[in-house]
Amino acid sequence: MTVRDERLRLADRSRDITVRSARPVPLDPPRNAGELPRYLRALRRLADADDLAAAYAGCTLARDVAAREGDQAGLATVYSQRSSVARRLGELPAALRDAEAAAALPPLPPGAAALLTSRRVAVHLDRGEIERAEQLMSDAELPDEPEYLLLRYVRGRLHLEAGRPGEALADLYRCGERLAVRGSDHPAVLPWRSAAAEVLAQLGAGEAAERLLGEEIALTRRHGLASALGRALRVQGRVTGGTAAAEEAVRVLHGTPRRFELATALVDLGALLNAARRRPQARRILRDGLELAQKCGSPALVERAQQLVRGRTNR
Description:
Distance between the termini: 36 Å
Low-confidence stretches: 1-14
Number of helices: 15
Order of helices and strands: EEHHHHHHHHHHHHHHH
Radius of gyration: 19 Å
Oligomer: single chain
Largest sheet: 2 strands, antiparallel
Structural class: mainly alpha
Number of strands: 2
Shape: globular
Mean pLDDT: 91
Strand content: under 5%
């Protein structure tokens, strides 16, 4: 399915994106701006169930309604939400365009503004743009309130990528504490365990990292999305150095719409196969990962895959 990515009064067909496994949006479209909040909540449920093609198409319908009605706040909310869906689809340039479009509109209320900041930072992290993520995060307020939890998780990821493991663990463990208090501690809400496990592994606390990963994998196997399981297995392979978990991650993610997560899993598996001296197989896997990383629009993942193909690194 092709979905046009248009700005108010500016249509640019060269920016169309294609999403797989398309089906009609299973919701009545909003008739006016007043129906947008209800419609967007329903679209969030679709996205959280990995029905990303329908969620993206629905966001585009909502954008058209907000633009027609001149609802600037609604338009900012729609762009923010569509950015999140595009990122999950692995359409990182489209996700960044929508996030920036939302940021260019009049400011959202504090909670919605924090959600938009978290989405902008997450896209930059996926693209490897750490300095830009740092700039956005430096201006963000982070009260200890439920609506800021995603922003705290994203800041924990940023600390990890920027080489601040202590600060990363503090944010990620705080996410776990707050989720437990709310009775919603599940990887489908925030996968803080696998993120913290990567930090612990870097610090040499392998047993603690594996324990957290074991908990997350068990939770996702019992009642979770395939994409959440695939992510946890990918991190397990990275942390333990085992190809079995990494290979299962690739198999699981092949059946999901999460293309960037699959690209990362392919590159991680290629790195592990290189380290295991299974180089012909590693090259095949890495070429697949490189091609998908290029399609997703992540310069950092492309560079890492290229270095692995050349044999310059095994990580």
